[in-house]
């Protein structure tokens, strides 16, 4: 069994879906299915959602009839994903707790998705390459890898050194998440300092702190890494409409094909 050396996404898992409630997963899934129509000769039946988190995309694709494997390194995020799967009584999802730099599957899949800047979490030297080799290894010949990244424009101009507060209510209890960014243009690393305050029910709050790190990748780095792992880059897009990527996009959607 592959070793899971990833530790992150603990304190935030309970409020993660609230913080990201504006993400339009159905439109994103439409983009993924359009990629299947455009770039594959046959619709795939088994997909891997890598760094699936609480399973928003995994569920969306499972509802559309695909057999899904969801891999994530955080037990806390996967625990939310399991609850959501049972609530919907879906039997076509297998969740595995593994590190995306060294995961193992039982066989190959027709396509791999990796959503919401999970690739930027590959912040250590060589991490991106390790992950891409694993993805390539478990893709069918000509299978697609469809993922997105936060762009250099977003790290430099939007994350920068900004801070945010997110206040909400989960299961009737108040929660507050304070989130401070620190982006270093030299190392291309962005640290997110997160503090989550959760109401205990007796007026007191429990505070948990977490530091997350994302790495900024430019287009040339991503292209070189994909090609050296055995992929052909099909396109960098700026939206779900397949508009060519631009420097001032905040997110790029990237489609690559595994050459074998
Ligand atoms: C921003 S969240 C995205 C989750 C999900 N894809 C979504 O659309 O909501 C990033 C996810 O990557 C996972 N992650 C980060 N580094 C990882 C690693 N090395 N191995 C496995 N999972 C990792 C985190 O646990 C987290 O669930």
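Q: What amino acid sequence fits the structure above?
A:
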């Amino acid at each position: 069994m592959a070793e899971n050396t990833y530790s992150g996404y603990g304190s935030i898992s309970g409020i993660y879906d609230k913080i990201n409630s504006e993400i339009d997963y159905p439109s994103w899934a439409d983009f993924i299915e359009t990629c299947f129509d455009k770039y594959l000769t046959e619709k795939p039946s088994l997909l891997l959602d890598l760094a699936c988190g609480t399973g928003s995309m995994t569920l969306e694709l499972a509802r559309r009839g695909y057999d899904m494997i969801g891999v994530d390194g955080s037990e806390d995020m996967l625990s939310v994903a399991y609850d959501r799967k049972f609530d919907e009584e879906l039997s076509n999802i297998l969740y595995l707790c593994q590190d995306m730099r060294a995961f193992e599957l039982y066989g190959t899949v027709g396509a791999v998705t990796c959503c919401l800047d999970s690739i930027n979490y590959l912040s250590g030297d060589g991490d991106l390459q390790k992950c891409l080799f694993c993805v390539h290894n478990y893709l069918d010949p000509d299978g697609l890898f469809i993922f997105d990244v936060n762009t250099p424009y977003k790290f430099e101009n939007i994350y920068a050194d900004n801070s945010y507060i997110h206040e909400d209510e989960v299961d009737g209890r108040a929660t507050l998440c304070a989130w401070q960014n620190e982006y270093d243009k030299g190392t291309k690393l962005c640290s997110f300092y997160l503090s989550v305050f959760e109401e205990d029910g007796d007026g007191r709050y429990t505070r948990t702190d977490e530091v997350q790190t994302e790495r900024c990748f430019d287009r040339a780095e991503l292209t070189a890494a994909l090609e050296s792992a055995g992929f052909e880059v099909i396109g960098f897009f700026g939206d779900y409409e397949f508009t060519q990527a631009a420097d001032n996009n905040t997110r790029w959607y990237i489609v690559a094909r595994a050459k074998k």
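Q: And what stands out in the fold?
A: The pocket of S-adenosylmethionine is lined by residues 6, 8-9, 20, 51-53, 56-57, 72-74, 77, 99-101, 115-118, 121 (CB under 6 Å).
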